[in-house]
Specification:
The protein is of the alpha/beta class and 286 residues long. It has helices at 3-22, 33-40, 46-49, 63-70, 85-92, 130-139, 157-170, 175-195, 204-209, 216-227, 237-245, and strands at residues 53-57, 75-79, 99-102, 114-120, 140-151, 250-257, 261-267, 284-285.
Amino acid sequence: MKGPNRALGERTVSDFGDQWLRYTDNSGFYGSVELFQDVFGPLLGPDDVQGSRVADVGSGTGRIVQMLLAAGAAHVTAIEPSAAFTVLEQSTRPHGDRVRCLHCSGDRIPEEAYDLVVSVGVLHHIPDPRPVVAAAWRALRPGGRIAVWLYGREGNEAYLALVRPLRWLTTRLPHRTLVGLSSLLAAALSAYASACRFLPLPLHGYMRSVVSRLTFDKRLLVVYDQLNPAFARYYRRAEAVDLLSSAGFEDVQAHHRHGYSWAVTGRRPLGHSLTGPTPAANIADR
């Protein structure tokens, strides 16, 4: 990255470093295999993780690492560029040599023939994620898979009309003020989730199956996580699919998770020569 994009990217990394130094707990449903399966839906499940060697890009405090290990991953390389790396090391220490932590950016994934590269809630915070996706392609074995989860634009139109102007303010607020605002919004989110138990409101499925199962402190963190980082992009389906297919991944599939975000998977071709875009015929939507 160069110029404004580099500065924005560095600020976002710093924002997350500060966030994950403050919020380190991944207990309960928030760090469960069940939530991991909800994120990726029909595209990727515990059976796909079992016995695999995985690289996790943007590990933060180790929440996704925890999910992968619980799903049966043989080994996870956890990659985190921010100051929260110290938290990541501490949280993954009980897993011994099943985890290796690397303090580097996502475009420096070791080229070690991984079975799977995962990135949950990270690429949409990188102004130019293409070098990270290219690094994932190089790091995978032929036939290995990438799985990413991204903020979506489709299904989020009303939410974005509110959050975009709000983020102009919240990305400039001091931590304590942002926590206070996030607490108020988390209370409103809790009330909305409760109402969704009885009314078919927008995103009622997500509210019932995910938000209602989070403790209040995790709901507050979900809100804070939306409002804190300097950069966030909301992807259209075509953009999310192109992010992988243009890097050379084939069999690219997209799942519209709860109608508001995108889980996308792709596979590195078995041959070693393909580096160009994947033909449109290989793209599927579930």
